[in-house]
Amino acid sequence: MLTWLDIASVAGFLVTWGGYTLFARKKAKVSWCLASSMQWYRVEWMLRMLDRDMRMPDAAIIGNLERVIGFFASTSILILAGLVTALSANQAAIKVLSTLPFAEETTVQQFELKILLLILIFIFAFFNFTWSLRQYSFANVLIGAAPLPDADDTSDEERRRFAISTAKVIDQAGHSYNYGLRSYYFAMAVMGWFVHPLLFVAGYLVVALVLFLREFRSRTLRAILAAEGKVLERAGES
Fold first, then answer.
1. pTM recorded for the entire structure
2. In 2, 52, 102, 131, which residue has its Cα 20 to 30 A from 27's Cα atom?
3. Mean pLDDT (whole number) for 212-218
4. Which residues, 6 or more positions from 58, have their beta carbon under 8 angstroms from its beta carbon?
5. Distances from the Cα of 2 to the Cαs of 109, 151, 173, 207, 235, in angstroms?
6. Residue 189: domain span
């Protein structure tokens, strides 16, 4: 059902996606990126949260993050419904694809396999978004249970440990959200496979490059680092 070029392009797609995920995770431990810089600020946020009597602004921030992720989770369900519908209209879709310039001839079985790959990607995205939502709800509970500033039964060390642990939960929620977003990026690359496998290859290589530039070389990252002198110093040392 698939040519050797199709098989090679899918294998490269999986290697590129998985390889970039591992690369980004390891590089974030030795140099600044959007994820590592945000984790630093999350710790600072939780430390300052412990000094406030009213934690409503902190809960509101978590609520805003949950709404954004909830939108993507709902969108993933709608996309999955559309993809399942496309399986029943494969003949019409193939006819449309055949009119595109440079489009490779596609059989019904090939078209269904491509749709199936997209379905798997968006299922993966949905699970990551919903897990991110759950982790943010856990963070909300931790903020509600945080010791008050005038609590005499909590030492400074215990406060700092609580802040770091809460920030870690929020950081893990952010990672799950990030994995879900990457699924959307790489799903866009799969669209090129409907035209030609080489366009598919070019698509996911461009996606990996765009993700790298945004996470490790973007102006947004430089602005985040510049917002705090201590962070800038550390970035210069690395």
1. 0.89
2. 131
3. 93
4. 45, 49, 52, 143
5. 9, 66, 38, 24, 47
6. 4-237
